[in-house]
């Protein structure tokens, strides 16, 4: 390659991946407002000053403020209400994590990276569930395990039970953020897992995995719960990839 060609390539890369790019004015405004909210100066439910008032207070133009508010709205931090005005939302984790779920569903992802993420998140959640699950939640998990064995010949029914089983473990972990992330990851590659669940022997293995996870959580053993969930996620990964290879 000629020196000229190399120089042109580097110039193009520089344009595509700027180094040490400074945040824009709107990003700085958004960060400032987030700081005011996190410090308690602005509380959930508070009405924000008008765009004109914010532009004067922050010494930026109204378009900059408008763009910043648009970004915060996309993040679920602020919202407009009927009758006018922009308000801070309730800031509940479910609302704040919604953009993550949407982004994950839109973006292409590598199936191996998905299951590596599930190994980190799902195993951690299982360990937390072993610490925090209530007796009632453990009883419900046990009932779902029993139901799973009865649904081995019913892939649709088993998948319904499976979703409830994993959701209950996430709830038992007593962490809203982990619960939302886990749910988002669970929903990915669902079509491939649907096909895998119809393969002979797959649901028998999943039912046994569920029993091991439930036993570890009931025994209040975080490390055993982590290990049992790790085995389960690996089995899901293996059968999912097998279906994808066939396709």
* Helicity level: over 70%
Secondary-structure element string: HHHHEEHHHHHHHHH
The poorly predicted ranges are 1-20
List how many beta strands DSSP finds: 2
Strand order of the largest sheet: 1-2
Q: Round the Cα radius of gyration to an integer and report it.
A: 24 Å
In terms of structural class, how would the helical and strand content be classed?
mainly alpha
Task: Just give the CATH class of the largest domain.
Answer: Mainly Alpha
Approximately what portion of the residues adopt beta-strand conformation? under 5%
3D shape:
elongated
Number of helices: 13
Largest sheet: 2 strands, antiparallel
What fold name goes in the CATH topology slot of the largest domain? Answer: Four Helix Bundle (Hemerythrin (Met), subunit A)
Q: Can you tell me the CATH superfamily of the largest domain?
A: GntR ligand-binding domain-like
How confident overall, as mean pLDDT? 84
Q: State the end-to-end CA separation.
A: 40 Å
Query: What CATH architecture of the largest domain do you see?
Result: Up-down Bundle
Protein name: GntR family transcriptional regulator
Keywords: DNA-binding, Transcription, Transcription regulation
InterPro entries: GntR_C, TF_FadR/GntR_C, Tscrpt_reg_HTH_GntR, WH-like_DNA-bd_sf, WH_DNA-bd_sf
Organism: Devosia nitrariae
């Amino acid at each position: 390659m000629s020196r000229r060609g190399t120089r042109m390539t580097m110039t193009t890369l520089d344009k595509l991946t700027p180094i040490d790019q400074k945040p824009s004015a709107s990003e700085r405004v958004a960060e400032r407002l987030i700081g005011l909210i996190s410090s308690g100066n602005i509380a959930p439910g508070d009405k924000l000053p008008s765009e004109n008032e914010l532009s004067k207070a922050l010494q930026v133009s109204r378009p900059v403020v408008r763009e910043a508010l648009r970004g915060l709205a996309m993040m679920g931090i602020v919202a407009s209400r009927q009758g006018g005005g922009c308000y801070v939302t309730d800031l509940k984790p479910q609302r704040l994590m919604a953009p993550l779920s949407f982004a994950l569903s839109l973006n292409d992802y590598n199936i191996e990276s998905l299951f590596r993420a599930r190994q980190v998140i799902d195993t951690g959640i299982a360990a937390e569930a072993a610490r925090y699950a209530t007796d009632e939640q453990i009883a419900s998990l046990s009932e779902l395990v029993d139901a799973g064995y009865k649904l081995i010949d019913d892939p649709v029914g088993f998948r319904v039970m499976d979703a409830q089983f994993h959701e209950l473990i996430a709830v038992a972990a007593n962490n809203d953020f982990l619960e939302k992330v886990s749910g988002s990851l669970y929903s990915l590659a669902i079509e491939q897992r649907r096909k895998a669940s119809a393969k002979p022997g797959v649901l028998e293995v999943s039912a046994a995995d569920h029993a091991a996870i439930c036993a570890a959580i009931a025994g209040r053993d975080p490390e055993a719960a982590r290990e049992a969930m790790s085995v389960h996620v690996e089995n899901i990964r293996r059968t999912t990839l097998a279906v994808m290879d066939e396709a």
